[in-house]
Amino acid sequence: MPLKTLSLSEQIAQHLTQKIVTGEFAPGSRLPENELAKSLEVSTNSLREAFRLLENMHLVELQPRRGVRVCDVNPQQVRYLYDFLFLLFSRLAAQVAEEWQEGEVEDLIAMVGDLGKLFQDNDLLQAHEVAFRFVQIATRRFAKNPYLAQDIEGLLPLLQRYSYIALRAETTEFDVSLSIFQRLVKNVLARDASATVADIREYGENQCQIVLRALAQQNAA
To answer: What CATH number does the domain located at 75-220 have?
Structure first.
């Protein structure tokens, strides 16, 4: 699939997404339109379109006469996201295990190897990025149902935000994730759809619980 050329608004949204994911723009904080447009050297129209894209990703709220606010993170939202998105991932994972062909998975296998090297080097932030590229590539390559692909890709930034919370809260989370990724690849290559789905569900539940624990600790502080 050819790479899509991003519009200016999409580039702005991508830039702001990264700041929200990493917590530079904290939950509940305001994003002042004029200041941001000036600092990014873009028009307010382009910035407003970027805000609408972020709203569709559930990362910001557009509040009439009050501006743009970064969405809060609460336990119910986290549970809803993981329950729904990993249901979609399970469907995709089963499809990959059942239908992959030679030449379709070799680069993904190599990415899992890259994840292992990054983990050994303690470069967890880069590993986090590679893991999400893995998911994005797999989705675009194997999700034949366009609605499935659209739902997964639309929710990936929110998942990235929550998984970053997990990574900051417990760095051992990536060790667990890596072992599941490695096991998942073996089960995909063995065309074991049920085991692959079990791997996906284990990964999602493990990460969800870490995020919920992190939120509980923040609320108790």
So the answer is: 1.20.120
Check whether 221 has a pLDDT greater than 80.
Answer: no
| Cβ-contact 72, 28 below 8 angstroms | yes
- Please state, for a pLDDT cut of 70, what percent of the chain lies above it: 96
Q: 147-180: per-residue pLDDT in tens?
A: 999 999 999 999 999 988 888 877 666 778 888 8
Distance CA 43, CA 206 (A): 42
Q: Count the neighbouring beta carbons within 10 Å of the beta carbon of residue 133.
A: 12
Whole-angstrom distance, CA of residue 181 vs CA of residue 200: 9
Lowest mean pLDDT among 79-93, 159-173, 184-198, 200-214: 159-173
Are 68 and 51 in contact by the 8 Å Cβ rule? The answer is yes
d(C-alpha 90, C-alpha 136), whole Å: 15
| Domain 8-70 sits in CATH 1.10.10.10 | yes
> What are the boundaries of each domain within the chain?
8-70, 75-220
Tell me the whole-structure pTM to 2 decimals. Answer: 0.89
* Residue 131: Cβ-neighbour burial (10 angstroms; 0-12, 13-18, 19+): buried
